[in-house]
RNA sequence: GUGGGAAUAGCUCAACUGGCAGAGCACCGGACUGUGGCUCCGGCGGUUGCGGGUUCGAUUCCCGUUUCCCACCCCA
């Protein structure tokens, strides 16, 4: 049997109803903040991610689905292409390519699949889905303003609340400018050198490869050492510090709770200043349901104009997973309003009635005149229809149809002209 | 990529130390040819993930492999 490949999965009904609920809610919330949708290709030239995400990141170094294009045109052949591992690089590429900065500030969102070749785990798949949004534009449009950081964070809080996820936790940090980070990295390495010997094996390795990650260590014995290490916040330049304070002040004013986490570091090279993460319990080790931050230098790094930006990516797989506990898919599934059950030879009349009802925006399940009435009732019950409409010779002759409430057993006869209106007012 | 656990009917799971592969739910049919749910009766359903080995005999023990789960790395 051919099966879905490792790390990919089918999203089946009724779960897809929950996914649609999440996406519809996101679109609705984004609209209130005047975000508009952008759809970029699912693959790009490899160089985009190498430059945009960072050569040294794990994503680029070992997790990308990359292949060599083949084609007739010289320009196609041998070109290295990659399935997008994240959305921001592609969006910024589109921003540069179409000179979107000329329109002023861009508020864009993008919903779709991403690909990373990682070992699958709970809440982690090789094809996974992200809901991504970005505010990007020329500095003159205010793209650098802390007001935009706070707006994005407040929007996320609103979205999570709307989805019924109440026990989220916003972790906030500033990772400064690249210049700030160079100094911080030096200080961190210097501080680690005398003490790293007492730390766990993982930390000893991190101290060499990626000192920032030492802050992620969960080994209890290492915590006292980690407490003594310098923090990025101590190395923020005047501008970064003021920017960070301004973000916090606005959040306090609008009433979005957050906790400062000066150990929060982000994996992607392009992040500057504000970095954040929303976490949620009961997701195992994958407790971050969304993360994001500011990337003021990304456009420049890709050869574009100065275009500061801030954005986030929601891990939709994880979001849906954390939603499932409280909101079963069935609860957002629209069940049929009515099951139209044709008696023998009545398929045509039934189809005509169903057509009429569907035109009135009723959800109609249409049966088959080969079914005995008993079987139609069973089928109607199984699909969860609220009413069953019996289409038999008697009904057609009288132009009035038997309509039975499957839950209460109550049965009425309604003339054809009133059927749609009656059902619409009684569908509940 | 590394470490550990698991895999038996569509789903959830049994099967003693190696001895005839089972149950509940679901599905189909009947009791009931224009009225479902409840009940009763019957039926369908399996290369025990896959490949090899040990054995008279393997769901069971061993090796390999694939996938999933848990964790690491990293991240959404």
Summarize the structure.
Helices cover about 40% and strands about 20% of the residues. By secondary structure, the chain is α+β, with helices and mostly antiparallel strands.
Verbal overview:
- With 428 residues, this protein is α+β, with helices and mostly antiparallel strands.
- It folds into two domains: 15-176 and 236-324, BirA Bifunctional Protein, domain 2, CATH 3.30.930.10; 334-426, Anticodon-binding domain (Rossmann fold).
- 39% of the residues lie in helices and 20% in strands.
- The protein is built from 16 helices and 16 strands.
- The chain has helices at 15-32, 46-53, 58-62, 88-97, 146-162, 178-195, 201-209, 223-228, 238-254, 298-301, 316-324, 329-332, 347-359, 373-382, 393-398, 416-426, and strands spanning 36-37, 43-45, 66-68, 80-83, 106-115, 127-136, 169-174, 259-260, 272-279, 288-294, 309-315, 338-342, 364-366, 387-391, 400-405, 411-415.
- It has an eight-stranded mixed beta sheet, with helices on both faces.
- The longest helix is centred in the N-terminal third of the chain and has 18 residues, at 15-32.
- The radius of gyration is 28 Å and the shape is elongated.
- It starts with 14 loop residues before the first helix and ends with a helix.
- The model has no long low-confidence stretch (mean pLDDT 89).
